[in-house]
Design a protein that fits this description.
By secondary structure, the chain is α/β, with parallel strands linked by helices. 48% of the residues lie in helices and 12% in strands. Bound molecules: adenosine-5'-triphosphate and magnesium ion. The site of magnesium ion (MG) has 4 residues, from α8.
Length: 477
């Protein structure tokens, strides 16, 4: 049964489209914002998207662009207001499948969705064929031709189709999440849910409920039953990011679940089973964490069935020009420009050490792009130091200068070159971490309302839902 995602901030429209598509035998998921739509695309395989052009925050086009970047070319049907034909045509140039003009003719809507679904099927067959020939979109997204990256891709191909647990290690910004995405995308589970949990971003007292769910009344604030990610990822893949940050008591519980093959929601006694493939990532050296008694050895062995080490960028410098060009390419497409990177600049970039790895290079290219008004981005502008991504404590950077303690001015300077959104995201994370995940205290410190904090967390794809009640209780206590 084809699955259609409807994104529209207008509830009446959403319901009308949903009803009509369901009557045609489609499974329909609905989202009120672009961000929510993207989250749904992460969690399930969608055949086509029906999306209003005008949405609060991320509009329909921006949502499409992000979705295509992250999930490949799912057919996108945009709904535009009357008289907006020009935008609609531009949208098609940018990769939209088709558009419908308001007031939407429901017959035409059905027919357009049908042909989008046919296109999705054709794409899928094509993809399977390409995969048999050794190509894959998810792997193509990992840019690089160095021997190290080729080896990483080979391992992904070899293990993706098994159910083996994969442990991905590598410094911050090396591309661990891209690797995890590819493992899922190339697996037989690719049409099934793919859920992610970041261990570092979830307050420790809520982690268990996030993983295994809870029954109503299980603890103060558990106002309704909630499924955990294990349950929701049934038949699919669960990505446990920053697994090295998992508290020891949660490690015990995770281990028990992996051993027993069953779990129960907090406050429940029914044993539940879920067929979940685990992929974990960390920027720590997990073996050393075991030696330091911060990570359980038995869990380490369970998780480390297949090991993928993503090498730092400075150990595969030949990938730097390729990566730089691909980031520039994306900016050129986004802003419809034709800027170029000079040979001199590429040489300069190759010599740099990139303690923040690919993410740092990506941010740096974006900064150079913005600072260049002409067509050629040359080395003269590259004197601008790259934005320093703060390195994790255990990170084996060879550039000690970035790890020296910094004063407030340097701390601010270190943020130069990052998009404002990213600065805000980091500040939110750091403030939350400072208050041990207590959202009320964090909001008070930031002098914003708790609601605003939740909205922002959601915008940045940070865990926010359902935690509120418990965090509130914590604040009052
Ligand atoms: N080989 C690559 N090709 C293209 N883009 C890449 C590559 N590696 C990383 N990136 C980009 O760099 C950024 C960081 O990658 P990613 O989030 O996967 O890193 P990470 O190792 O998970 O980092 P962290 O430890 O900080 O979570 C992303 O925007 C990603 O798309
Ligand atoms: Mg990551």
């Amino acid at each position: 049964m084809p699955t259609i995602l409807v994104i529209d901030d207008n509830a009446t429209n959403r319901e009308t489209y949903t009803d009509i598509l369901q009557a045609d035998g489609h499974t329909v998921m609905a989202a009120a914002t672009g961000e929510e739509g993207l989250a749904k695309l992460t969690a399930a395989a969608v055949d086509a998207v029906l999306c209003d052009l005008k949405l609060p925050n991320l509009d329909g086009l921006a949502t499409m662009e992000l979705a295509h970047e992250r999930f490949g070319n799912v057919p996108w049907i945009l709904i535009t207001g009357f008289g907006n034909e020009e935008t609609a045509v531009a949208a098609i140039k940018q990769g939209a499948f088709n558009y419908l003009t308001k007031p939407v003719d429901l017959g035409r809507l059905k027919a357009t969705v049908e042909s989008a679904v046919r296109m999705a099927n054709a794409n899928r067959e094509n993809k399977a064929l390409r995969r048999d020939l050794g190509y894959d979109e998810a792997l193509d997204r990992i840019v690089g031709t160095s021997a190290q990256i080729k080896a990483v891709k080979t391992t992904i191909r070899q293990v993706a189709r098994t159910d083996a647990t994969v442990l991905i290690e590598g410094e911050s910004g090396t591309g661990k999440e891209l690797v995890a995405d590819a493992v899922h995308a190339l697996s037989n589970r690719s049409g099934r849910p793919y859920l992610k949990i970041n261990m570092a971003a979830i307050p420790r007292d809520l982690l268990e409920s996030e993983l295994f769910g809870h029954e109503r009344g299980a603890f103060t604030g558990a106002v309704s039953q909630k499924k955990g990610k294990f349950e929701a990822a049934d038949a699919g893949t669960l990505f446990l990011d920053e697994i090295g940050e998992m508290p020891l008591d949660s490690q015990v519980k995770l281990l028990r679940v992996l051993q027993d093959g069953s779990f129960s929601r907090i406050g429940g006694n029914q044993a539940l089973n879920a067929d979940v493939r685990l992929v974990c990532a960390t920027n720590r050296n997990l073996k050393q964490e075991v030696l330091a008694n911060r990570f359980r050895m038995d869990l380490y062995f369970r998780l480390n069935v297949v090991h993928i080490q993503v090498p730092p960028l400075r150990e595969r410098r030949e990938d730097i020009p390729l990566l730089a060009l691909s980031f520039l390419d994306r900016l050129n497409r986004r802003y419809q420009t034709q800027k170029e990177l000079s040979e001199g600049l590429l040489q300069h970039l190759r010599r740099m050490d990139w303690p923040g790895n690919v993410r740092e290079l990506e941010n740096h290219i974006e900064k150079l792009y913005v600072l260049t008004s002409g067509k050629i981005v040359g080395p003269e502008i590259a004197g601008v130091a790259p934005a320093r991504v703060p390195a994790p404590a255990n990170h084996r950077s060879e550039v000690p200068a970035t790890q020296a303690p910094v004063g407030p001015d340097e701390a601010i300077a270190a943020l130069v070159g990052l998009p404002l959104d990213e600065v805000e995201r980091r500040l939110l994370l750091a403030t939350l971490a400072h208050f041990e995940g207590n959202k009320s205290k964090a909001a008070r410190q930031l002098q914003i309302g708790v609601k605003t904090l939740y909205r922002k967390l959601q915008e940045y794809g940070l865990p926010s839902e359902e935690h509120g009640d418990a965090a509130e209780v914590g604040a009052k206590a």
